[in-house]
Amino acid sequence: MIEVRDLTKHYGSTIAVDALSFEVLPGRVTGFLGPNGAGKTTTMRVILGLDAPTTGTVTVDHCPYRERHFPIHEVGALLDAQALHPGRTASSHLWSLARSNRIRRKRVDEVLGLVGLSDVAGRRVGPFSLGMKQRLGIAGALLGDPQILLFDEPVTGLDPEGIVWIRDLFHRLAAEGRTVFVSSHLMSEMSLTAQHLVVIGRGKLIADDSIDHIIAGAGTSVRVRSPQATQLTRVLTTEGAGVRNDDGALTITGLGAATIGDLAARHQISLHELTPQRASLEEAFFELTEYSVEYHGVDLSHRPATTKDPR
Amino acid sequence: MSTAVSTTAVTDEASYEAPNVPAPSGRVLAAVMGSEWTKIRSVRSTIWSLLATFGITVGLGVLFCVAYVSRYDRLSLKERFTFDPTAQSLRGLFLAQIALGVLGVLVISSEYATGLIRTTFTAVPQRRTLLAAKVAVFGAIALLVGMAAAFTAFFAGQAVLNTKDLGVSLGDPSVLRAVLGAGTYLTVVGLLGLAIAAIVRRTAGAIATLFALVLVLPLLARALPSPWNTNIAKFLPSDLGAALFNVRPDSDLLSPATALAVALVWLLVGFAIAASLIVRRDA
Question: Which end of chain A, N or C, is less surrounded by CB atoms within 10 Å?
Fold first, then answer.
């Protein structure tokens, strides 16, 4: 379990993370979602003891990361797949990592096999594609067979086959009872990978909920077609629903499909279509972050107008 | 692709302890030294830098001796009288120190340059232990290669000088100390490179700083009026090196024992700054 409590991180005058609190629980894939610059990488760095929090605490299984000995047995992480010495071979890279935590040689070959890099184990990593480097980074994260795994933007650079593979891997790791924490700015990817979401924007927590709740909270609508559209609109608005007329189809918010159908029947209005519209995670995300964008605008207005010509 | 993530035990020992039980720091250091050894031997720059250190020390030393022998008949009595055959065969290390110093820099700066340092710190949150492991592993390699280069350059140089019966042997007064001093000096410069790179964290900046300290500062110090010139220069690394490997006493240099002590102070100060910064800075 990862616990972030009131985490604030300043870099000079920039506030990267602002009073952030959340928990990442075992047994499921938790997505860490936010636009670029929202503070995802900073939060992950603080969790891993790379950056010190300005205020607040972060623990991994009730222990601050920096106090751990041989930590990659408990926590595996992939922050930046490009962070490799180009002249070192894939297996030497993993072996140096393994030795620092007293992991035996055979495990290096094992994880290389697991990510499908056995054939290039002895090659220098410089010319590796980004996808291969991602796989090597994942091999490094799995080296200590840890219960807690963190991945920062792991699908970047992967081909479609690689994306399916990594999604399957995350699901398997979570099914084994591990804590899997995956950051991404791609909502579509998260909707397929994660069961739970921590959404942040401008360093602040926006949502911490299951994917289903977040989508449901974004508001569902129902699409209706009816030859008596005007009459139906009158009925529905008196019931408090929002009705929008798009080219003959009505988009109704605030009432469920069943209620709409019942109301129509009671008023003897015939319906040609009655389709519940499920909001996509994208829509939910935009709805959630809209408010962090507003916050952004307010924030900017406090700054001196640098774009003005000084003369 | 459906293989389980964990198939067998991960560690060497069946009795791997619970995660949060602090391991004795000696065990962490030993493990990290093994890791650093793997790192340093798995990149090409290591072998090239070490070959350059060795080749330049020996090759230039022999060249200096050949040049001296060929000019010998035309030298003045004073020049012949002040000749230091040991130092003559060891002079190549003033160039070789650059190669070893650069390797010392790369031992840590290459990790900062690639971002690998974050992976390393994630695996080893005990950053000072990590720094100590780098010092131990690189220091041992530098000492080994430095000594091998010094002794080889000495024997090769004396063989050249002996064609005119000018050579000395290891058993002559102060000669063994001078050869050991030369190997020590190379090691000190290499470690200074590592300390500077741990502070500066940039390859180019660290190499420039090291060169300024070892090659440029002595020239600037000499430009000062007497007695500041020698009073300052003799505490700078290059003059400490000269004090360590000169057989003939020189009033402008510290005694070999004092020079060694001052060199160790340089390293201690450098690594004290590096150790204090490495835990305080964000990676």
Answer: C
Q: Are residues A195 and A255 in the same domain?
A: no
Question: Which of B6, B7, B8, B10 is best to mutate for the A interface (most A CBs within 10 A)?
Answer: B10
Which of A221-230, A256-265, A280-289, B261-270: highest mean pLDDT?
Answer: B261-270
**Do A96 and B39 count as a contact with CB atoms less than 8 A apart?**
yes
* Cα B92 to Cα B202: distance, rounded to the nearest angstrom: 28
Phi/psi of residue A186, nearest 5 degrees: -100, 105
Q: Are residues A264 and A137 in the same domain?
A: no
Name the domain count of chain A. Answer: 2
pLDDT in tens, B128-148: 999 999 999 999 999 999 999
Q: Could you read off the pLDDT of A273-297 as tens digits, one per residue?
A: 988 876 666 666 776 666 555 444 4
Same structural domain, A112 and A261: no
Chain A: residue whose CA lies nearest to B111: A85
Residue among A11, A54, A59, A70 with most chain B CBs within 10 A, to mutate: A70
CB A141 within 8 A of CB A77: yes
Q: Give chain A positions within 8 Å (CB) of B36.
A: 96
Closest in A51, A86, A169 to B282, CB measured: A51
Closest chain A residue to B133, measured at CA = A100
pLDDT above 60 for B12: no
Measured CA to CA, the distance from residue A151 to residue A102 in angstroms comes to 23
pLDDT recorded at residue A244 = 83
- Domain range spanning residue A244? 221-277
Answer yes or no: do A37 and A140 share one domain.
Answer: yes
Q: What does the CA dihedral B231, B234, B237, B241 come to, rounded to 10 degrees? A: 180
Tell me which chain A residues have a C-beta less than 8 angstroms from the C-beta of B39: 85, 88, 92, 96
Amino acid letter, B188: V
Query: Are A58 and A192 found together in one domain?
Result: yes
CA B143, CA B132: separation in Å to the nearest integer? Answer: 16
How does the average pLDDT of chain A come out, rounded? 88
Choose, out of B1, B2, B5, B278, the residue to mutate when testing the contact with A (most A CBs < 10 Å): B5
- Burial (CB count <10 Å: 0-12, 13-18, 19+), residue A134: buried
Residues of chain A with Cβ-Cβ distance to B114 below 8 Å are 82-86
Q: Could you count the other beta carbons within 10 Å of the beta carbon of residue A174?
A: 22
* ipTM above threshold 0.95: no
Tell me: the pLDDT tens digits for A51-61? 999 999 999 99
Q: A83, B20: Cβ pair inside 8 Å?
A: no
Q: CA angle, A123 as apex, A119 and A129 as ends, to 5°?
A: 85
Q: Distance from A282 to chain B by nearest Cα, in Å? A: 31
A50, B283: Cβ pair inside 8 Å? yes
The CATH number linked to A261 is 3.30.70
Mean pLDDT of the B228-251 span: 93
Which residues from B are below 8 Å from A74, CB to CB?
A: 19
Question: What CATH code is carried by the domain that includes residue A147?
Answer: 3.40.50.300
* Pair A142, A22 in one domain: yes
Please check whether residues A111 and A242 belong to one and the same domain.
Answer: no
CB B19 within 8 A of CB A102: no
